């Protein structure tokens, strides 16, 4: 299908010239504002990788052949019973799936409203949802006959998951990580190296996740014949946003079935945090056509809505191109990527997966920012009420639950994706509280 | 053969860029590629990326580049010699699609044309996504130069040739921009094959930095593009405090040595 992108006189234009879209009026208490969840379809993307108008491939010609081959290889794997059985078996015996859907009784009492259920991705092997995708793509790497894997990582969770999957299958593994993130996440760097991965510091640009992605793509351009790039989120050129969503959709499929089995019905609302958007895409996708299930994505609101103070791409961004895909992005008026901030290194990214942009524009998912302070408070609250230390990423989703569950009826059911455990964050949380450990 | 050197707009600043363009014009280069700094240039190697980071660090904006080029082309006259000034060769903008899309393709093309650019190279816009920009470039009298990589399949080559104008930018090696010691053998067979399929001039870039490589390409390519090797020379102004005059001269001397080889 021909694109409307950039066409003369066509309606896709920046929302404003100041680098910010108009700041949306956000009322997290307004529970009935999701007009008519819309025409959003679960049957996306099309063969060009389009989710509505979003997605596609904006990459150098050098990568196009690899992306075309990957698209074919993934379609064949997806249809292959043996591949699917191997993956299911690994998810069960190696990752420990299905992860529980846990009734958070004291959190529910504390909020005094809807019943709150936590999808416990924190209990997975390696402590987060990232392993679901890393194993799927590692199996695909083997299937394509490639021996070397590269990956990017921000906080280190995807790097650890990829290093784990590569160790499990004897694949060579190189992880690109910003110099700044290496300094902040020493434990994960140590773990990756112990698992046999080579961690390469990225010293260009902002020295964080987005530069690590640039560097991984550069490596891939030169190594594409022998190497697979296991991208860690639902971002990048087609087929990555679709493929990563598919591998993460085990989260939402299980949650949906567990609701039916444990509660006899679907939840009223599903909530997940959104950085690049992989745990949320996996949680949301199986519910897209359940029109009565409201879905809410929680973005990192950081310190304020000013550029550089947050990473709330869908709440404050504009439509643009970044890392090979057309989606909402945080850019200045020229199209240069803006600096971002979040208390959570895993949400600290100036773009978002194209399917989330599609869900935003169709109204199927509502996206709201939660501040650093709210997330930090939620981290402590969940620890004290439920004995669970959530990752700071997941703490954003918990914070929204704390803000809104009490406003809902006691008959309502909320399912929240607890995407990872918080062990990796304790040093940072202690530092923010002025303590040393 | 044509010699087509690159430079980064605004590194170390726009007045120096204009001097470098004039110096090259005086030496008789055939075309100049002007890189628009972008924050996330995935097709570029470390040397060019560092130059982009430096230029953006000085708060360089797209409109500043257009204004500087416009003042240069209007004072000298594109391709026409004013008394005492050598004529400017065609100028081509190398620019990420992120910047073009943000401005709107039609507006970007209009500004590029008004500034005096002859064409656009958009390294992150594959032919599959270029349909609209091809039409817009044509409306504005700009060439849209397309790239062919070592990994490009026969089927993709045909599609790229369908919409390419100006010349064909042949990427010598899979990977990013940057200097390489040797050009791969596969490049030569690819160039021979392309020659059979198109009448467009074939220019080779990525990895070209030395006069000896020009000799290797003689009879196979119509032009060579050199980027990183020159950007590295210019970087000496910011990174090693070399005087601008000396760097302008050495960039000119390098152009002369490449030109001598291409004219053999």
Describe the structure.
The complex is a heterodimer of chains A (437) and B (264). By secondary structure, chain A is α/β, with parallel strands linked by helices. Chain A has two domains: 50-93 and 130-244, 3-Layer(aba) Sandwich (Rossmann fold), CATH 3.40.50.1100; 97-127 and 249-432, 3-Layer(aba) Sandwich (Rossmann fold). Chain A contains 16 helices and 14 strands. Chain A has helices at residues 61-78, 81-95, 105-111, 130-143, 157-169, 179-184, 186-194, 209-223, 240-248, 250-263, 278-284, 313-316, 354-362, 372-386, 392-404, 426-432, and strands spanning 50-51, 54-55, 101-103, 115-120, 148-153, 172-178, 198-202, 227-229, 269-273, 294-302, 318-322, 325-329, 365-371, 413-418. In chain A, strands 3-4-14-9-10-13 form a six-stranded mixed sheet, with helices on both faces. Chain A has a four-stranded parallel sheet with strand order 7-6-5-8, with helices on both faces. Mean pLDDT of chain A is 91; it is low at 1-26 and 31-37. Chain B is α/β, with parallel strands linked by helices and 264 residues long. Chain B has a single domain, classed as Alpha-Beta Barrel (TIM Barrel). In chain B, strands 1-2-3-4-5-6-7-8 form an eight-stranded parallel beta barrel, surrounded by eight helices. In chain B, helix 3 packs parallel to helix 5 and helix 10 (228-239) runs antiparallel to helix 11 (244-262). The termini of chain B are close together. The model of chain B has no long low-confidence stretch (mean pLDDT 93). Classes of the chains: A alpha/beta (437), B alpha/beta (264).
């Amino acid at each position: 299908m021909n694109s409307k992108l950039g066409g003369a006189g066509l309606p896709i234009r920046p929302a404003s010239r100041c680098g910010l879209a108009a700041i949306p009026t956000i009322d997290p208490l307004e529970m009935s504002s999701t007009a008519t969840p819309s025409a959003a379809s679960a049957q996306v993307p099309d063969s060009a990788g389009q989710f509505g108008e979003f997605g596609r491939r904006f990459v150098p010609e050098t990568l196009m052949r690899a992306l075309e081959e990957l698209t074919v290889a993934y379609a064949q794997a997806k249809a292959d019973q043996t591949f699917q059985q191997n993956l299911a078996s690994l998810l069960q015996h190696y990752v420990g799936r299905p992860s529980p859907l846990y009734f958070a009784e004291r959190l529910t009492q504390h909020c005094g409203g809807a019943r709150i259920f936590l999808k416990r991705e924190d209990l997975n092997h390696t402590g987060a949802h990232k392993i679901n995708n890393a194993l799927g793509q590692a199996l695909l790497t083997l299937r394509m006959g490639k021996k070397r894997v590269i990956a990017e990582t921000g906080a280190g969770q995807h790097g650890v998951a990829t290093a784990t999957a590569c160790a499990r299958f004897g694949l060579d593994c190189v992880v690109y990580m910003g110099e700044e993130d290496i300094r902040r996440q020493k434990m994960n760097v140590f773990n990756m190296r112990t698992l046999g991965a080579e961690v390469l510091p990225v010293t260009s640009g902002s020295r964080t996740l987005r530069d690590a992605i640039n560097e991984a793509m550069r490596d891939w351009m030169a190594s594409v014949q022998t190497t697979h790039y296991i991208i860690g989120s639902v971002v990048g050129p087609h087929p990555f946003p679709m493929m990563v969503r598919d591998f993460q959709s085990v989260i939402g499929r299980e949650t949906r079935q567990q609701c039916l089995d444990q509660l006899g019905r679907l939840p009223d609302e599903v909530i997940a945090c959104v950085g690049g958007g992989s745990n949320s895409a996996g949680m949301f996708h199986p519910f897209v056509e359940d029109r009565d299930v409201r879905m809410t994505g929680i973005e990192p609101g950081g310190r304020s809505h000013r550029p550089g103070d947050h990473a709330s791409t869908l709440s404050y961004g504009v439509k643009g191109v970044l890392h090979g895909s057309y989606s909402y992005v945080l850019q200045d008026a020229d199209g240069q990527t803006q600096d971002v901030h979040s208390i959570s290194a895993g949400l600290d990214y100036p773009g978002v997966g194209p399917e989330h942009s599609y869900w935003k524009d169709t109204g199927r998912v509502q996206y709201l920012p939660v501040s650093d302070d709210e997330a930090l408070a939620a981290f402590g609250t969940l620890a004290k009420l439920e004995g669970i230390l959530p990752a700071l990423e997941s703490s954003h989703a918990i914070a929204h639950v704390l803000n809104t569950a009490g406003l809902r009826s006691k008959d309502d059911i909320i399912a929240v994706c607890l995407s990872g455990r918080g062990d990796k964050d304790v040093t940072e949380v202690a530092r923010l509280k002025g303590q040393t450990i | 053969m044509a010699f087509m050197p690159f430079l980064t707009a605004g590194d170390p600043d726009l007045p120096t860029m204009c001097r470098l363009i004039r110096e090259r014009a005086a030496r008789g280069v055939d075309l100049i590629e002007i890189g628009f700094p972008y924050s996330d240039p995935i097709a570029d190697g470390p040397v060019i990326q560092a130059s982009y980071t430096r230029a953006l660090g000085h708060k360089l904006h797209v409109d500043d580049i257009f204004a500087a080029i416009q003042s240069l082309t209007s004072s000298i006259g594109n391709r026409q010699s004013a008394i005492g000034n050598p004529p400017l060769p065609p100028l081509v903008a190398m620019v990420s699609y992120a910047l073009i899309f943000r401005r709107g393709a039609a507006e970007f093309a209009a500004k590029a044309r008004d500034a005096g650019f002859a064409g656009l190279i958009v390294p992150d816009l594959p032919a599959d996504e270029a349909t609209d920009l091809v039409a817009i470039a044509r409306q504005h009298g700009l060439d849209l130069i397309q790239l062919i990589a070592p990994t490009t399949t026969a089927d993709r080559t045909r599609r790229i040739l369908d919409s390419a104008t100006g010349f064909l930018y042949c990427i010598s090696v899979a990977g990013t921009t940057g200097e390489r010691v040797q050009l791969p053998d596969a490049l030569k067979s690819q160039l021979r094959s392309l020659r059979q399929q198109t009448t467009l001039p074939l220019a080779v870039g990525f990895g070209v930095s030395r006069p000896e490589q020009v000799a290797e390409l003689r009879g196979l390519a119509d032009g060579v593009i050199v980027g990183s090797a020159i950007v590295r020379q210019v970087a000496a102004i910011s990174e090693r405090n070399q005087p601008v005059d000396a760097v302008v001269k050495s960039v000119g001397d390098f152009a002369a040595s490449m030109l001598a080889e291409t004219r053999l």
